[in-house]
Amino acid sequence: MSQPLADRIRPTELDDVVGQQHLLAKGMLLRNIIENNRIPNMIFYGPSGVGKTTVANIIAANTGKKLYKLNATNASVTDIKNIVSDLDSMLTMNGVLLYLDEIQNFNKKQQQSLLEFMENGKITVIASTTENPYFYIYNAVLSRASVFEFKQLDSSDVKIALKRALKLLTKEYDGYTVTAVDDALEHISRVSNGDVRKAINALEMIFLSAAGKADKKVDITLDLAVQATQKKAMRYDKDGDSHYDILSAFQKSIRGSDVNAGLHYLARLLSAGDLLSPCRRLMVIASEDIGMAYPNAVAITRACVENALQLGLPEARLPLAQAVITLATAPKSNSVIMAIDMAMKDIETKDISDIPIHLKDSHYKGAAKLGGRGLEYKYPHSYKNNYIPQQYLPDSIKSAVYYEPGNNKNEQANKKYWDEIKKEKL
After folding, report:
1. Torsion of Cα atoms, 140 then 141 then 145 then 151, to 10°
2. Is the peptide bond before 11 cis (omega within 30 degrees of 0)?
3. For residue 281, is pLDDT > 90?
């Protein structure tokens, strides 16, 4: 059993692949492509250990094509030429599927060497990359391939794979009794940062360290899980109070402009192996607590979050810390959440009348016959300062005010501008 456990339990059916339901659930595009056995050139983009290679293997098995695997880190144009030389052999009579891992490590010449065969269909290329393909893969290759993004796995998905691995170990090591406490599996799945391969490797290490005992009993405890992952166990139940308490303290610290506390709670989340929760919460904070006081905070936070998800831990701590510092030190305004919540409340509680007739769509034949739809609409860009007063809200709430500018430099500057525009004589 020298083959790694992660490879031994690799799924052979789409239904057994954990996560990636946006791609592999019934009715999804990639699932349909695979089941219809009409495989185009594709690029699988996403973090390590989330199923890219597994799905490529399943595709190869379903198509009957000869599968070749290359890793662009150490492959060369010569390797591609060697595959090309096999194209007309008996082994490749059903065609060739080339799985090219880490394609971003191929230079332009190496990537271009694939183009002729991608075009004529003699080689179907499935390339994978952990880097954004629109930055690292040349346009000529991108234009001949469909890009599918694989998402980082949730710890619950990883836990499913760990339980499957335990079943296989019990089956392979006849006579052994294997037990695992839930806290141990939870810890491994959480600190693996969505990487199934990393989680299973840790589980296998624990098993092998105890597999030689005379009583043939392997107890996978939290202490062993901590040793295998080299991450300390923290009081952190993703579905429990402590999880939400930390996230609450995290947001409230940033809202309160305490940059040190914000960094502290970020560190607690990351130390527990939770990367997704702070990413999501930071995106919320950028709009809920900073909002119109510093609108660029949304773009900066999104860039930091995307970088963090691509880097993974431990490097992800850097862009996320940058986001925390940016948000904690930025001016604050809750005018965005107050405005949209008031509008939503009106939708839920009031009898909303019809859209004003001059705002209705008039870009179709016969609109003028339906009560003059859109005929009295005034196009603001045709007027001074690109503004002309007219009613936009339905009659029943035509005087409603949802947005109140916050007391900060940016919103007050916007308010002053519009106050001046709207008081001018037209």
Report:
1. -120
2. no
3. yes
